[in-house]
Design a protein that fits this description.
Length: 565
């Protein structure tokens, strides 16, 4: 170690040429907010010199460009990108996202510890630094049938893995406030480490009780008022902009220089089509600056403030001694990555080719039996029928009630009011449960769409105008081992296979992106009006307070239960 330190010091002092020197550009000083003209010297995985002139074994001209710290996504489910961690690495690292703090909550709900181990093994091989939070809510609720159960004793053995930060988003905030024994056991085991929060709309003294358990972060704020209360009470707010949950616009009033030390950015759930068309965290930065946010505030949130919130004390600044995660951009406003360095390594296709592959898991996780059209019937009952109301751009839903038309002794759809059928089918091969209901807001006028991506337990979720197409769509998912399917009049219009736990593709992300584009067009051809019909479908079974939920155990009113979303 002494020789390695001596080498770093010699390179920093300038006694010997550094490994790499970026010459002729400026770097964004996130302490002072200045653009500083300077060489940047890199030795191994560290920055060793700034604010001076350096010689390097390799010298790269970055004249006219700006160097910023690598961007940090502080909360995401890589599974929602529909690709494996290796492909996610190849997809977003070239955009400047050098650290991703993920919760493998989705694959853990299907495969348990096997899914977590798959992510940890993958994180050891990726070029970007993927850090893992241990999934705290598997299953997410007793009202659904998940594929696994992760009590505290199955999580603790992973705690000291080099890629593990702490306990992932603690979704069961009612369980914390009301001192549920299972919740307390997990919280107790991870005291002193990082515990990630998830507390939508939680305010007042109940929020205080939640925070008293040692929870420090939250990505579920949807208003500036809610975020400010949580910041005042010591929380670090993770501003989210995913493919469905879009909170950036609402939270822009808090993205200021004064509050930026208590902010970070995250995507939570973002698919590769949106990444290709818009970007990732770079998209958030562009959008914020275009709306008037100070560049210093948003870049701090994207790097140094994010690193400090999660105890990653080695990154987030362009400064000597810090990890050489660097992004060379054309301008602060455009945030278009020209060059990316991960731990001092220039990101290239050749660098990705050096990674060791990790064997996929969960290739036989879709075990639902065959269903028939008659299985999707909803018997007629007097009075109004509960209907789930989709809220575009949100994962929460509205509880609505309507008198629906009848067909014999069955309750039917109402296309004039955009009310169609929805069903959840248990797919883990545990009990074969099946529940039917109604949903408003998808816009479908014909056909059906179905998915094995159904938060949080990832059972089959299908919406449709007629029972025959719904049955075909659900059965096709079993044949392709999971994924998305679009059906019209007995024909499959489009599909994507997601055989890794029914959540992720084995294809390159470019192929997944192209298939998703075709699938989106197929859904629009059925009349779908949602910007992201498949991710919105994935969140439809999600239990939320105080709204309606469909689980595989039947249609239930969540007002009667202590559940979360």
């Amino acid at each position: 170690m002494t020789q390695a330190l001596e080498r770093l010091i010699d390179h920093g002092v300038g006694r010997k040429p550094a490994d790499i020197v970026l010459k002729g550009g400026r770097f964004f000083d996130l302490v002072t907010g200045e653009l500083v003209a300077s060489d940047i010297a890199i030795s191994g995985n560290r920055i060793v010199g700034t604010c001076g002139d350096y010689q390097g074994l390799e010298e790269i001209d970055v004249a006219g460009r700006i160097v910023v710290p690598g961007l940090i996504d502080t909360h995401l489910h890589i599974e929602s990108s529909l690709v494996t961690p290796h492909e996610f690495d190849r997809c977003v690292l070239p955009l400047g996202i050098t650290t991703a703090i993920c919760d493998p909550h989705e694959i853990a709900n299907v495969l348990g510890t096997e899914g977590i181990q798959f992510f940890l093994d993958s994180a050891m091989e990726t070029i970007m630094d993927i850090r893992v939070q241990l999934s705290s809510c598997v299953p997410a609720t007793h009202l659904e049938t998940a594929g696994a159960d992760l009590p505290v004793e199955r999580l603790v053995p992973f705690r000291h893995h080099p890629k593990v930060i702490g306990l992932a988003e603690f979704m069961n905030f009612p369980g914390v406030v009301h001192k549920d024994a299972i919740c307390l056991a997990k919280l107790d085991a991870f005291q002193g480490g990082h515990i990630d929060g998830h507390a939508p709309l939680l305010r007042g003294n109940e929020l205080n009780g939640y925070l008293a358990a040692g929870i420090r972060t939250d990505h579920e704020c949807t208003t500036a008022e809610e975020a400010l209360e949580k910041i005042r009470k010591g929380m670090h707010i993770l501003v989210r902009e995913g493919s469905v949950s879009k909170d950036l616009q609402a939270l822009m009033p808090i993205i200021t220089e004064r509050l930026s030390p208590f902010l970070a950015l995250c995507t939570d759930d973002r698919n590769p089509l949106d990444i290709a068309e818009q970007g990732h965290l770079d998209h958030m930065i562009r959008a914020a600056i275009a709306a008037g946010v100070e560049p210093l505030a948003i870049y701090r949130a994207a790097s140094i403030s994010a690193a400090r919130a999660f105890g990653l004390s080695d990154r987030g600044l362009v400064a000597p001694g810090w990890r050489a995660d660097l992004v060379v951009v054309d301008s602060l406003e455009n945030c278009k990555a020209q060059l990316v360095f991960s731990a001092g390594r220039r990101v290239t296709d050749q660098l990705f080719a050096q990674r060791k592959p990790v064997e996929p898991v969960g290739l036989d996780s879709v075990r639902a039996g065959e269903v028939k059209a008659a299985d999707f019937g909803v018997p007629y009952s007097e009075g109004e029928t509960s209907v789930i109301g989709v809220l575009p751009g949100k994962i929460i839903t509205a509880h609505r009630r309507y008198r629906l038309p009848t067909e014999g002794n069955q309750t039917g759809v109402d296309l004039d009011r955009d009310i169609i059928k929805v069903a959840v089918i248990e797919r883990h091969g545990i009990n074969g449960n099946h529940a039917n209901g109604f949903v408003q807001g998808f816009g479908l006028k014909k056909g059906a769409i179905a998915s094995t991506v159904g938060h949080d337990s990832h059972n089959i979720c299908v919406v449709g105008v007629n029972e025959e197409d719904m049955a075909l769509a659900a059965n096709r998912l079993g044949e392709i081992k999971g994924g998305f399917v679009v059906v019209e009049d007995g024909n499959v219009l489009g599909e994507i296979a997601l055989p890794v736990a029914g959540l992720m593709s084995l294809e390159p992300y470019e192929r997944v992106r192209d298939i998703l584009h075709h699938l989106r067009q197929a859904a629009f051809a059925l009349g779908a009006t949602l910007e992201e019909p498949f991710l919105q479908l994935a969140f439809l079974p999600l239990p939320v307070i105080p709204h309606l939920k469909i689980s595989d155990r039947g249609l239930v009113d969540v007002d009667k239960f202590a559940l979360i979303g």
